[in-house]
Structure formats: structure tokens, C-alpha cells
Amino acid sequence: MEIGYTLMTEQSGPNDLVRYAVAAEQAGFTFEVCSDHYFPWLDAQGHAPNAWTLLGAVAHATEQVELMTYVTCPTMRYHPTVVAQQAATMGLLSGDRFTLGLGSGENLNEHVVVHGWPPVSVRHEMLIEAVHIISALFDGGYVTRLSPFYQVDSAKLWDLPAQRVPIAVAVSGAESCELFAPLADHMVAVEPNAELVKMWDAARRGKSTSRRIGQLPICFDADRQAAIARAHEQFRWFAGGWKVNAEMPSTAGFAAATQFVRPDDVADNISCGPDVEAHVAAARPFAEAGFTHLALVQIGGEPQHQEPFLDYARDKLLPAMRAEFT
């Protein structure tokens, strides 16, 4: 299982994120994923720069590390033709180091351009059509489509990378695996669920083996209590689970929904502090479930939280994880 680093746009500004991306590559992370949000989850996180502008800068500032959106919603805030163009450009700028990660989105980010939030069944239908449009544009040539959700009139990508940009799709259960495994190259999931991996593989019906790309928040700090307090302040929204988190419309909603989550509750679910073995143990369920890639999130976006973590990752955490998982 390869270990990656998360460029968490909700908790850091763009200039800091580019610096962290370079430092993460130098520390030994093999890939980097970037969230694509219009809002942070909580006001305490305090940031939300544009992911695609950021990724372009990161592509030029780094040399070898793979890059990925984790994940972009190509159905509302962006039209799928625009996502395809952005992804193709990233493929070129990065020298074929980019994977397009897609998902059905969250109300928190997508409501800024639409009225109302469709049920998950409709969001899945929209995402299926979006993936078809993006794939057709990656094939080259002109694309014209008329569907209940999108009208595409003679769209064409004029700058395509030599290597087709891989597509990964976020899934959470049997239905999403059945719908998206035949369409995508790789799987994205945030829970270490072995059954999800099995369902994904079965739904691919003999296609080539996929990467299974997970994500794990941790909170490194030399002071474990300080780590717990920071994780509670900035990451208690994580306790809601993705089915709940997709429906919340605002940072105020997340704050209200998590007002009774205690620091101890967060510490029970997020590995906090300086103990290397505790962080390795938190990652182990992903390896046991069959995940091939795991992106770590270091909670806390300020330099005093990220820079010591990157040093710690280089010197202690990554060597321990490589010994355990490779």
C-alpha cells in the first residue's frame, strides 16, 4: 500500500499548500491528493482556494509525485466538459502524473450554483452521464450529446496528453460500485471496507485491476492533548459519515450537527499524537481491506502544524509504514 499526502484546501491557503506539496514529495510521499471545495467544512478551518489553479502550480513545483483530485464533482458547480478540459491540461502540465478523481458531491459546495439538492439516485445518474462525456472527450474528436442533464454541442479537447488521464470514482456501497466500476479506472473510498473492494472488483467484470485509493485523517503533535483539541476543533464534522455529510448545506449546519461531539469522541476515531505505532495501526485496516493507496490528512493547516508533521513523516512515520505495508 502506497502512502500519499492530502493537500487539504479547507485548512490552508494556496501558497502554503504549494510549499507543503513540495515538502511532501521530498519527505517521500509517492502521491498527493487535493480536495476540491467551495467551502471549508467548519469555519475554524478557514480556507477554500480553487483546487485546479492550485494543482497547476503544484504540477510545476513538483517533479515525480503523482497528483489527483480527491474528489471533483463534475455535475453542478462544474460542467463535465470543463472538468475534462481541466483534467487534460493537468495531464500535460504534470507530465502524465495526474488522475481525475470524481464524486457525486456535497450540498455544502454545489449549492452555490443551483437551487435545491437532488436525491442521491439523481446525483448518481448525473455522475454517470458526466463520466461518459468526460471519457468521450478524452477519446479525442468532437462530442455532441443531449441528455436530461447536459447538452454538449461539438465539444473537443484541443490539448490532450499522450497518456490518457485515468478516472477514479468515489463509491460507498453496492449500488455505486455496480454503477461506476465498469466506467472508471480506479476506486475511491474513505472507509476500510473489504466488502466494498470485493463489490468493486466483481462489478468490473474482468477489466484490469484497479487502484483502491483511501484517505485517513490523523493529527500529529508532540503533545497528544493538543492534537486531540485541534482535531476536535477542525475535524469533528468527520464523525457524521459521508451519507450525512453530503446533505449538509452550510458550515453552520456542520457546526450545529457536531456541537455535542466531545474531544474524547474524536480521539476514539482519529489517531492523535506522536505515537508512530498508533498511526500505523490506524492505517492497517485499509491494507487489510485491499486498498493499494492511502492518502494521509494531517489535521491543522498552519505551518506550525504541517512542517513538523512533514519532518516526522520523513524521519519516522513513512519508514514505519513502508516497513509495514510494502
- Label the CATH architecture: Alpha-Beta Barrel
Biggest sheet overview: 8 strands, parallel, barrel
Helix content: 40-55%
Unreliable stretches, pLDDT < 50, 5 or more residues?
none
Q: DSSP helix count?
A: 13
Using the coordinates above, name the CATH class. Alpha Beta
Explain this structure.
- The protein has 326 residues and is of the alpha/beta class.
- It has a single domain (2-325), classed as TIM Barrel (Alpha-Beta Barrel).
- 45% of the residues lie in helices and 16% in strands.
- The protein is built from 13 helices and eleven strands.
- The strands form two sheets. An eight-stranded parallel beta barrel has the order 1-2-3-4-7-8-9-11, surrounded by six helices.
- Helix 1 (14-27) packs across helix 2, helix 3 (80-93) crosses helix 5 (120-138) and helix 8 crosses helix 11 (263-269).
- The longest helix has 23 residues, at 303-325.
- The mean pLDDT is 96.
Helix and strand arrangement:
Elements: E1 2-7, H1 14-27, E2 31-34, H2 51-61, E3 66-69, H3 80-93, E4 98-102, H4 107-110, H5 120-138, E5 143-146, E6 151-155, E7 167-170, H6 174-180, E8 186-188, H7 194-203, E9 212-219, H8 224-235, H9 242-245, H10 251-257, H11 263-269, E10 271-272, H12 276-289, E11 293-298, H13 303-325
Parallel strand pairs: 1-2, 1-11, 2-3, 3-4, 4-7, 7-8, 8-9, 9-10, 9-11
Antiparallel strand pairs: 5-6
Helix pairs in contact: 1-2, 1-13, 3-5, 6-7, 8-11, 12-13
